[in-house]
Amino acid sequence: xxxxxxxxxxxxxxxxxxxxxxxxxxxxxxxxxxxxxGSGKTTILRMVAGLEYADAGxxxxxxxxxxxxxxxxxGVGFVFQHYALFPHMTVGExxxxxxxxxxxxxxxxxxxxxxxxxxxxxxxxxxGNRFPTQISGGQRQRVALARALAVDPxxxxxxxxxxxxxANVRRDLRRWLREIHDELGxxxxxxxxxQEEALDLADRVVILNEGRIVQQGTPEDVCRRPGSAFVMxxxxxxxxLAGTATGGxxxxxxxxxxxxxxxxxxxxxxxxxVDLGWATAGDGIPAQVAxxxxxxxxxxxxxxxxxxxxVELDVPADMQVAASDHGYVSILRGNVFxxx
Amino acid sequence: MVAMFFTSLPxxxxxxxxxxxxxxxxxxxxxxxxxxSDGTIFLRVILPLLTPALLAGLSLSFARSLGEFGAVIFIAxxxxxxxxxxxxxxxxxxxxxxxxxxxxxxxxxxxxxxxxLAVTNYLQxxxxxYMARA
Lengths: 340, 134
Known about the structure:
The complex is a heterodimer. Chain A is α+β, with helices and mostly antiparallel strands. Chain A folds into two domains: 3-231, Rossmann fold (3-Layer(aba) Sandwich); 237-338, CATH 2.40.50.140. Chain A has nine helices and 20 strands. Chain A has helices spanning 41-49, 71-74, 91-101, 108-121, 137-149, 167-184, 195-201, 219-224, 229-235, and strands at residues 3-12, 15-25, 30-34, 56-61, 64-65, 76-79, 155-159, 187-192, 204-209, 212-217, 239-246, 249-252, 255-258, 265-271, 276-279, 285-295, 298-305, 310-315, 326-331, 335-338. In chain A, the strands form four sheets. Chain A has a six-stranded mixed beta sheet with strand order 6-7-8-3-9-10, sandwiched between helices. In chain A, strands 13-12-11-14-20 form a five-stranded antiparallel beta sheet. In chain A, a hairpin with a 2-residue loop joins strand 16 (285-295) and strand 17 (298-305). The radius of gyration of chain A is 24 Å and the shape is elongated. Chain B has a single domain (2-131), classed as MetI-like (MetI-like fold), CATH 1.10.3720. Chain B is built from six helices and no strands. In chain B, helix 2 (25-33) packs antiparallel against helix 3. The longest helix of chain B has 30 residues, at 38-67. Chain B starts with a helix and ends in a 7-residue tail after the last helix. Chain A binds chain B through residues 49-51, 70-74, 76-78, 80-82, 84-90, 97-98, 101-103, 130-135, 147-148, 150-151, and chain B through 24, 26-27, 29-37, 40, 44-45, 48-49, 127, 129-134.
Protein backbone atom coordinates (compact mmCIF):
# COMPACT_ATOMS: atom_id res chain seq x y z
CA UNK A 1 0.00 0.00 0.00
CA UNK A 2 1.48 3.30 -1.11
CA UNK A 3 1.44 6.11 1.47
CA UNK A 4 1.40 9.74 0.35
CA UNK A 5 1.75 12.68 2.71
CA UNK A 6 1.01 16.07 1.22
CA UNK A 7 1.98 19.28 3.02
CA UNK A 8 1.17 17.82 6.45
CA UNK A 9 1.25 20.28 9.34
CA UNK A 10 0.90 19.61 13.06
CA UNK A 11 1.00 22.13 15.88
CA UNK A 12 0.91 21.34 19.61
CA UNK A 13 -0.37 24.34 21.53
CA UNK A 14 2.09 26.93 20.26
CA UNK A 15 4.84 24.57 19.18
CA UNK A 16 4.80 23.65 15.50
CA UNK A 17 6.07 20.07 15.43
CA UNK A 18 5.70 19.40 11.71
CA UNK A 19 6.00 22.07 9.02
CA UNK A 20 4.37 21.05 5.75
CA UNK A 21 5.99 17.66 5.20
CA UNK A 22 5.40 15.90 1.87
CA UNK A 23 6.54 12.35 1.49
CA UNK A 24 5.82 9.37 -0.72
CA UNK A 25 6.38 5.82 0.42
CA UNK A 26 6.08 3.23 -2.31
CA UNK A 27 4.24 -0.01 -1.76
CA UNK A 28 6.49 -2.57 -0.12
CA UNK A 29 9.18 -0.08 0.75
CA UNK A 30 11.02 0.02 4.09
CA UNK A 31 11.58 3.64 5.02
CA UNK A 32 13.29 5.17 8.05
CA UNK A 33 12.39 8.55 9.50
CA UNK A 34 15.62 9.71 11.05
CA UNK A 35 16.18 12.81 13.11
CA UNK A 36 17.25 14.17 16.48
CA UNK A 37 14.68 14.37 19.26
CA GLY A 38 12.12 17.08 18.64
CA SER A 39 12.48 16.81 14.87
CA GLY A 40 8.85 15.72 14.49
CA LYS A 41 9.53 12.18 13.32
CA THR A 42 7.33 10.45 15.88
CA THR A 43 4.56 12.99 15.28
CA ILE A 44 4.61 12.17 11.56
CA LEU A 45 4.46 8.45 12.32
CA ARG A 46 1.54 8.95 14.70
CA MET A 47 -0.31 10.97 12.08
CA VAL A 48 0.16 8.20 9.53
CA ALA A 49 -1.20 5.79 12.14
CA GLY A 50 -4.16 7.99 12.98
CA LEU A 51 -3.11 8.43 16.62
CA GLU A 52 -2.80 12.16 15.90
CA TYR A 53 -4.66 14.17 13.35
CA ALA A 54 -2.97 16.55 10.93
CA ASP A 55 -3.90 20.23 11.30
CA ALA A 56 -3.47 20.74 7.58
CA GLY A 57 -2.49 18.68 4.57
CA UNK A 58 -3.56 15.18 3.62
CA UNK A 59 -2.49 11.59 4.07
CA UNK A 60 -3.45 9.05 1.41
CA UNK A 61 -3.22 5.27 1.60
CA UNK A 62 -3.17 4.23 -2.04
CA UNK A 63 -5.95 6.30 -3.62
CA UNK A 64 -7.96 6.52 -0.42
CA UNK A 65 -7.88 9.71 1.63
CA UNK A 66 -7.01 8.48 5.11
CA UNK A 67 -6.50 11.90 6.72
CA UNK A 68 -9.57 11.66 8.93
CA UNK A 69 -10.00 7.91 9.28
CA UNK A 70 -9.65 6.97 12.98
CA UNK A 71 -6.87 4.62 13.98
CA UNK A 72 -9.11 1.62 14.56
CA UNK A 73 -10.36 1.71 10.98
CA UNK A 74 -7.15 2.72 9.31
CA GLY A 75 -5.72 -0.78 9.11
CA VAL A 76 -2.23 -0.07 10.37
CA GLY A 77 -0.02 -2.17 12.57
CA PHE A 78 1.72 -0.03 15.17
CA VAL A 79 4.65 -1.16 17.29
CA PHE A 80 5.25 1.08 20.28
CA GLN A 81 8.61 2.07 21.63
CA HIS A 82 7.98 0.39 24.97
CA TYR A 83 5.99 -2.44 23.36
CA ALA A 84 2.70 -1.61 25.15
CA LEU A 85 1.91 -5.30 25.58
CA PHE A 86 -1.17 -5.97 27.68
CA PRO A 87 0.42 -7.14 30.94
CA HIS A 88 -2.57 -9.16 32.12
CA MET A 89 -2.69 -11.27 28.98
CA THR A 90 -0.35 -14.06 27.95
CA VAL A 91 1.79 -13.71 24.85
CA GLY A 92 -0.74 -15.76 22.90
CA GLU A 93 -3.67 -13.65 24.13
CA UNK A 94 -1.80 -10.49 23.24
CA UNK A 95 -1.29 -11.68 19.68
CA UNK A 96 -4.91 -12.88 19.45
CA UNK A 97 -6.39 -9.62 20.80
CA UNK A 98 -6.73 -7.89 17.43
CA UNK A 99 -8.43 -10.92 15.88
CA UNK A 100 -10.80 -11.36 18.82
CA UNK A 101 -12.05 -7.77 18.78
CA UNK A 102 -12.21 -7.38 15.00
CA UNK A 103 -15.49 -7.22 13.13
CA UNK A 104 -14.40 -10.13 11.00
CA UNK A 105 -15.59 -13.21 12.90
CA UNK A 106 -13.04 -15.93 13.25
CA UNK A 107 -13.46 -19.28 14.93
CA UNK A 108 -11.41 -20.13 18.03
CA UNK A 109 -9.43 -22.75 16.13
CA UNK A 110 -8.67 -20.33 13.37
CA UNK A 111 -7.37 -17.74 15.82
CA UNK A 112 -5.30 -20.33 17.68
CA UNK A 113 -3.75 -21.52 14.43
CA UNK A 114 -2.91 -18.00 13.32
CA UNK A 115 -1.40 -17.15 16.71
CA UNK A 116 0.81 -20.18 16.38
CA UNK A 117 1.84 -19.22 12.84
CA UNK A 118 2.70 -15.71 13.95
CA UNK A 119 4.68 -16.90 16.97
CA UNK A 120 6.62 -19.15 14.63
CA UNK A 121 7.26 -16.21 12.30
CA UNK A 122 8.73 -14.17 15.16
CA UNK A 123 10.55 -17.27 16.45
CA UNK A 124 8.72 -17.49 19.76
CA UNK A 125 7.15 -20.93 19.44
CA UNK A 126 6.21 -22.39 22.79
CA UNK A 127 6.18 -19.08 24.65
CA GLY A 128 2.47 -18.48 24.04
CA ASN A 129 1.52 -19.14 27.65
CA ARG A 130 4.06 -16.82 29.24
CA PHE A 131 3.15 -13.39 30.51
CA PRO A 132 5.00 -10.35 29.13
CA THR A 133 6.87 -9.87 32.43
CA GLN A 134 8.28 -13.39 32.06
CA ILE A 135 10.11 -12.80 28.77
CA SER A 136 13.09 -10.66 27.76
CA GLY A 137 12.95 -7.23 26.13
CA GLY A 138 13.87 -8.57 22.70
CA GLN A 139 11.16 -11.22 22.96
CA ARG A 140 8.61 -8.60 24.01
CA GLN A 141 9.47 -6.54 20.98
CA ARG A 142 8.85 -9.55 18.77
CA VAL A 143 5.52 -10.22 20.48
CA ALA A 144 4.56 -6.60 19.80
CA LEU A 145 5.39 -7.12 16.14
CA ALA A 146 3.41 -10.37 15.95
CA ARG A 147 0.45 -8.63 17.58
CA ALA A 148 0.60 -5.80 15.04
CA LEU A 149 0.87 -8.24 12.13
CA ALA A 150 -2.07 -10.33 13.36
CA VAL A 151 -4.67 -7.95 11.98
CA ASP A 152 -3.19 -8.03 8.44
CA PRO A 153 -2.28 -4.34 8.43
CA UNK A 154 -1.89 -2.45 5.17
CA UNK A 155 1.17 -0.72 6.54
CA UNK A 156 3.46 -1.41 9.46
CA UNK A 157 4.61 1.49 11.62
CA UNK A 158 7.33 1.18 14.24
CA UNK A 159 8.23 3.86 16.78
CA UNK A 160 11.88 3.57 17.84
CA UNK A 161 11.48 -0.20 17.66
CA UNK A 162 14.85 -1.09 19.15
CA UNK A 163 15.43 1.94 21.33
CA UNK A 164 15.03 0.16 24.64
CA UNK A 165 17.23 -2.85 23.86
CA UNK A 166 20.93 -3.42 24.37
CA ALA A 167 23.34 -3.18 21.45
CA ASN A 168 23.76 -6.86 20.57
CA VAL A 169 20.06 -7.69 20.69
CA ARG A 170 19.42 -4.58 18.65
CA ARG A 171 21.70 -5.66 15.84
CA ASP A 172 20.15 -9.15 15.66
CA LEU A 173 16.60 -7.82 15.69
CA ARG A 174 17.45 -5.33 12.97
CA ARG A 175 18.58 -8.02 10.57
CA TRP A 176 15.64 -10.14 11.54
CA LEU A 177 13.12 -7.33 10.94
CA ARG A 178 14.65 -6.83 7.49
CA GLU A 179 14.11 -10.55 6.78
CA ILE A 180 10.50 -10.39 7.94
CA HIS A 181 9.90 -7.33 5.78
CA ASP A 182 11.38 -9.02 2.73
CA GLU A 183 9.28 -12.11 3.39
CA LEU A 184 5.96 -10.30 3.85
CA GLY A 185 6.58 -7.34 1.53
CA UNK A 186 4.54 -5.05 3.75
CA UNK A 187 5.03 -1.28 3.44
CA UNK A 188 6.96 -0.31 6.55
CA UNK A 189 7.78 3.04 8.09
CA UNK A 190 9.91 3.31 11.19
CA UNK A 191 11.23 6.09 13.35
CA UNK A 192 14.69 6.18 14.84
CA UNK A 193 17.24 8.63 16.14
CA UNK A 194 20.01 6.10 15.60
CA GLN A 195 21.65 6.71 12.20
CA GLU A 196 23.31 3.30 12.22
CA GLU A 197 19.94 1.62 12.60
CA ALA A 198 18.39 3.64 9.79
CA LEU A 199 21.26 2.97 7.39
CA ASP A 200 21.41 -0.71 8.29
CA LEU A 201 17.71 -1.41 7.85
CA ALA A 202 16.03 0.96 5.43
CA ASP A 203 15.66 1.09 1.66
CA ARG A 204 15.31 4.82 1.97
CA VAL A 205 16.19 7.22 4.74
CA VAL A 206 14.27 10.44 5.36
CA ILE A 207 16.24 12.84 7.52
CA LEU A 208 14.25 15.38 9.51
CA ASN A 209 15.19 18.42 11.47
CA GLU A 210 12.87 20.83 13.26
CA GLY A 211 9.78 19.47 11.58
CA ARG A 212 11.10 19.59 8.03
CA ILE A 213 12.61 17.03 5.70
CA VAL A 214 16.22 18.03 5.13
CA GLN A 215 17.20 15.16 2.85
CA GLN A 216 15.86 11.84 1.66
CA GLY A 217 17.42 9.09 -0.35
CA THR A 218 19.02 5.67 -0.21
CA PRO A 219 21.55 5.08 2.55
CA GLU A 220 24.23 5.45 -0.11
CA ASP A 221 22.88 8.83 -1.23
CA VAL A 222 22.71 10.35 2.21
CA CYS A 223 26.10 8.98 3.27
CA ARG A 224 28.08 9.81 0.16
CA ARG A 225 26.27 12.94 -0.96
CA PRO A 226 25.03 14.70 2.17
CA GLY A 227 22.99 17.71 1.13
CA SER A 228 23.87 19.91 4.06
CA ALA A 229 26.25 20.27 6.96
CA PHE A 230 23.43 19.16 9.29
CA VAL A 231 23.02 15.82 7.49
CA MET A 232 26.76 15.24 7.43
CA UNK A 233 27.10 15.94 11.15
CA UNK A 234 24.04 13.97 12.10
CA UNK A 235 25.09 10.82 10.27
CA UNK A 236 28.34 10.33 12.11
CA UNK A 237 31.51 11.75 13.64
CA UNK A 238 32.53 14.78 11.68
CA UNK A 239 35.43 17.21 11.76
CA UNK A 240 34.65 20.79 10.95
CA LEU A 241 37.34 23.05 9.62
CA ALA A 242 36.85 26.69 8.72
CA GLY A 243 38.30 27.71 5.38
CA THR A 244 37.82 29.92 2.35
CA ALA A 245 36.73 28.99 -1.15
CA THR A 246 38.11 30.58 -4.28
CA GLY A 247 37.41 29.35 -7.80
CA GLY A 248 35.92 26.05 -6.75
CA UNK A 249 38.69 25.08 -4.33
CA UNK A 250 38.43 25.32 -0.57
CA UNK A 251 41.60 26.09 1.40
CA UNK A 252 42.61 25.71 4.99
CA UNK A 253 46.16 26.31 6.15
CA UNK A 254 48.23 23.71 4.31
CA UNK A 255 45.43 21.71 2.68
CA UNK A 256 42.96 22.09 -0.18
CA UNK A 257 39.70 20.36 -0.96
CA UNK A 258 37.86 20.53 -4.28
CA UNK A 259 34.61 22.43 -3.86
CA UNK A 260 32.77 22.28 -7.18
CA UNK A 261 29.86 24.66 -7.39
CA UNK A 262 30.61 26.46 -4.12
CA UNK A 263 30.79 30.23 -4.47
CA UNK A 264 33.78 32.21 -3.27
CA UNK A 265 33.75 33.14 0.41
CA UNK A 266 34.01 31.56 3.85
CA UNK A 267 33.17 27.84 3.91
CA UNK A 268 33.15 24.96 6.33
CA UNK A 269 34.92 21.79 5.34
CA UNK A 270 33.45 18.65 6.87
CA UNK A 271 35.36 15.39 6.88
CA UNK A 272 34.92 12.05 8.61
CA UNK A 273 37.75 10.83 10.87
CA VAL A 274 38.64 8.18 8.24
CA ASP A 275 38.86 10.89 5.58
CA LEU A 276 41.78 12.57 7.30
CA GLY A 277 45.36 11.34 7.05
CA TRP A 278 48.27 11.68 9.46
CA ALA A 279 51.93 12.03 8.60
CA THR A 280 54.96 13.16 10.55
CA ALA A 281 56.35 15.01 7.56
CA GLY A 282 55.12 16.43 4.28
CA ASP A 283 52.05 18.41 3.27
CA GLY A 284 49.11 19.11 5.49
CA ILE A 285 47.87 21.14 8.38
CA PRO A 286 50.39 21.28 11.22
CA ALA A 287 48.91 19.67 14.33
CA GLN A 288 49.81 18.29 17.72
CA VAL A 289 48.41 15.05 19.12
CA ALA A 290 46.40 15.50 22.30
CA UNK A 291 45.45 11.91 22.91
CA UNK A 292 45.35 8.54 21.15
CA UNK A 293 42.39 6.21 21.65
CA UNK A 294 42.80 2.55 20.79
CA UNK A 295 39.77 0.84 19.30
CA UNK A 296 39.26 -2.65 17.89
CA UNK A 297 39.34 -1.43 14.29
CA UNK A 298 42.28 0.98 14.60
CA UNK A 299 43.55 3.99 16.45
CA UNK A 300 41.88 7.35 16.73
CA UNK A 301 44.02 10.43 17.11
CA UNK A 302 42.61 13.46 18.90
CA UNK A 303 44.69 16.37 17.69
CA UNK A 304 44.71 20.12 17.75
CA UNK A 305 45.59 21.95 14.57
CA UNK A 306 47.52 25.23 14.57
CA UNK A 307 44.36 27.35 14.51
CA UNK A 308 43.31 25.72 17.76
CA UNK A 309 40.50 23.63 16.30
CA UNK A 310 40.24 20.04 17.53
CA VAL A 311 40.17 17.24 14.96
CA GLU A 312 39.73 13.49 15.25
CA LEU A 313 41.21 11.12 12.75
CA ASP A 314 41.28 7.37 12.34
CA VAL A 315 44.58 5.72 11.46
CA PRO A 316 45.62 2.06 11.07
CA ALA A 317 46.26 0.10 14.25
CA ASP A 318 49.99 -0.26 13.54
CA MET A 319 50.73 3.45 13.26
CA GLN A 320 53.23 4.59 15.87
CA VAL A 321 51.90 7.77 17.40
CA ALA A 322 51.70 9.13 20.93
CA ALA A 323 50.35 12.14 22.76
CA SER A 324 52.16 15.48 22.17
CA ASP A 325 53.70 14.25 18.85
CA HIS A 326 53.77 16.83 16.08
CA GLY A 327 52.61 15.99 12.57
CA TYR A 328 50.53 17.00 9.59
CA VAL A 329 46.85 16.36 8.91
CA SER A 330 45.88 15.88 5.29
CA ILE A 331 42.30 15.93 4.00
CA LEU A 332 41.76 12.90 1.76
CA ARG A 333 38.05 13.55 1.19
CA GLY A 334 35.82 16.28 2.41
CA ASN A 335 32.51 18.00 1.80
CA VAL A 336 32.47 21.74 1.52
CA PHE A 337 29.46 23.83 2.52
CA UNK A 338 29.21 27.60 2.40
CA UNK A 339 28.90 29.20 5.82
CA UNK A 340 25.44 30.65 6.07
CA MET B 1 -25.86 1.13 52.66
CA VAL B 2 -26.11 4.75 51.46
CA ALA B 3 -24.13 5.95 54.44
CA MET B 4 -21.43 3.36 53.88
CA PHE B 5 -21.27 4.21 50.22
CA PHE B 6 -20.41 7.79 51.04
CA THR B 7 -17.90 7.09 53.80
CA SER B 8 -16.18 4.25 51.92
CA LEU B 9 -16.03 5.56 48.37
CA PRO B 10 -12.87 7.58 49.03
CA UNK B 11 -11.03 4.37 49.93
CA UNK B 12 -11.79 2.86 46.53
CA UNK B 13 -11.05 6.09 44.69
CA UNK B 14 -7.75 6.58 46.49
CA UNK B 15 -6.53 3.08 45.71
CA UNK B 16 -7.62 3.08 42.07
CA UNK B 17 -6.51 6.61 41.23
CA UNK B 18 -2.72 6.09 41.29
CA UNK B 19 -3.03 2.90 39.23
CA UNK B 20 -5.17 4.70 36.70
CA UNK B 21 -2.68 7.54 36.51
CA UNK B 22 0.19 5.11 35.96
CA UNK B 23 -1.52 3.28 33.12
CA UNK B 24 0.52 3.70 29.96
CA UNK B 25 -1.63 5.55 27.41
CA UNK B 26 0.14 3.47 24.76
CA UNK B 27 -1.84 0.43 25.99
CA UNK B 28 -5.06 2.11 25.00
CA UNK B 29 -3.58 3.29 21.72
CA UNK B 30 -2.29 -0.19 20.99
CA UNK B 31 -5.77 -1.62 21.57
CA UNK B 32 -7.22 1.04 19.29
CA UNK B 33 -4.75 0.33 16.52
CA UNK B 34 -5.75 -3.33 16.74
CA UNK B 35 -9.33 -2.32 16.04
CA UNK B 36 -10.86 -2.42 19.53
CA SER B 37 -13.92 -0.24 20.20
CA ASP B 38 -13.94 1.97 23.30
CA GLY B 39 -16.22 -0.44 25.15
CA THR B 40 -14.07 -3.45 24.35
CA ILE B 41 -10.92 -1.62 25.35
CA PHE B 42 -12.44 -0.66 28.69
CA LEU B 43 -13.73 -4.14 29.45
CA ARG B 44 -10.77 -6.13 28.20
CA VAL B 45 -7.79 -3.91 28.81
CA ILE B 46 -8.46 -1.14 31.32
CA LEU B 47 -10.77 -2.90 33.75
CA PRO B 48 -8.64 -6.05 34.21
CA LEU B 49 -5.65 -3.86 34.97
CA LEU B 50 -7.64 -1.97 37.59
CA THR B 51 -9.08 -5.09 39.22
CA PRO B 52 -6.35 -5.56 41.86
CA ALA B 53 -6.64 -1.94 42.95
CA LEU B 54 -10.44 -2.14 42.95
CA LEU B 55 -10.30 -5.22 45.17
CA ALA B 56 -7.86 -3.59 47.55
CA GLY B 57 -10.09 -0.55 47.82
CA LEU B 58 -13.14 -2.72 48.28
CA SER B 59 -11.62 -4.75 51.12
CA LEU B 60 -10.43 -1.58 52.83
CA SER B 61 -13.84 0.00 52.63
CA PHE B 62 -15.54 -3.21 53.74
CA ALA B 63 -13.27 -3.46 56.77
CA ARG B 64 -14.11 0.11 57.66
CA SER B 65 -17.84 -0.44 57.14
CA LEU B 66 -17.90 -3.45 59.47
CA GLY B 67 -16.93 -1.41 62.49
CA GLU B 68 -18.63 1.83 61.55
CA PHE B 69 -21.73 2.96 63.38
CA GLY B 70 -21.76 6.74 63.69
CA ALA B 71 -22.62 7.49 60.08
CA VAL B 72 -25.15 4.67 59.85
CA ILE B 73 -27.08 5.74 62.92
CA PHE B 74 -27.31 9.32 61.77
CA ILE B 75 -28.62 8.43 58.35
CA ALA B 76 -30.57 5.21 58.92
CA UNK B 77 -31.50 5.49 62.58
CA UNK B 78 -31.37 2.40 64.71
CA UNK B 79 -34.66 0.61 64.21
CA UNK B 80 -34.71 -2.90 65.70
CA UNK B 81 -34.30 -5.73 63.16
CA UNK B 82 -34.17 -3.44 60.18
CA UNK B 83 -31.36 -0.90 60.51
CA UNK B 84 -29.56 -2.25 63.56
CA UNK B 85 -25.86 -2.85 63.04
CA UNK B 86 -23.65 -5.44 64.66
CA UNK B 87 -21.03 -3.04 65.90
CA UNK B 88 -23.63 -1.04 67.79
CA UNK B 89 -25.28 -4.23 69.14
CA UNK B 90 -21.96 -5.35 70.57
CA UNK B 91 -21.49 -1.94 72.09
CA UNK B 92 -24.96 -1.98 73.74
CA UNK B 93 -24.35 -5.46 75.21
CA UNK B 94 -21.09 -4.15 76.58
CA UNK B 95 -22.85 -1.28 78.30
CA UNK B 96 -25.30 -3.74 79.82
CA UNK B 97 -22.27 -5.63 81.25
CA UNK B 98 -23.41 -8.64 79.20
CA UNK B 99 -19.87 -9.57 78.21
CA UNK B 100 -20.55 -13.01 76.78
CA UNK B 101 -23.23 -11.69 74.38
CA UNK B 102 -20.93 -8.86 73.33
CA UNK B 103 -18.09 -11.34 72.72
CA UNK B 104 -20.41 -13.58 70.67
CA UNK B 105 -21.42 -10.73 68.38
CA UNK B 106 -17.84 -9.51 68.14
CA UNK B 107 -16.55 -12.93 67.15
CA UNK B 108 -19.09 -13.08 64.31
CA UNK B 109 -17.71 -9.74 63.12
CA UNK B 110 -14.16 -10.96 63.48
CA UNK B 111 -14.88 -14.10 61.54
CA UNK B 112 -16.59 -12.17 58.74
CA UNK B 113 -13.62 -9.84 58.54
CA UNK B 114 -11.21 -12.76 58.28
CA UNK B 115 -13.22 -14.46 55.55
CA UNK B 116 -13.43 -11.21 53.64
CA LEU B 117 -9.72 -10.66 53.95
CA ALA B 118 -8.95 -14.18 52.75
CA VAL B 119 -11.29 -13.85 49.78
CA THR B 120 -9.89 -10.51 48.62
CA ASN B 121 -6.32 -11.72 49.11
CA TYR B 122 -7.02 -14.75 46.99
CA LEU B 123 -8.74 -12.72 44.27
CA GLN B 124 -5.95 -10.20 44.26
CA UNK B 125 -3.29 -12.85 43.90
CA UNK B 126 -5.25 -14.30 41.01
CA UNK B 127 -5.66 -10.93 39.32
CA UNK B 128 -1.96 -10.23 39.76
CA UNK B 129 -0.70 -13.64 38.69
CA TYR B 130 0.77 -12.09 35.55
CA MET B 131 3.11 -10.05 37.68
CA ALA B 132 4.85 -13.21 38.88
CA ARG B 133 8.24 -13.56 37.30
CA ALA B 134 9.51 -16.75 35.76
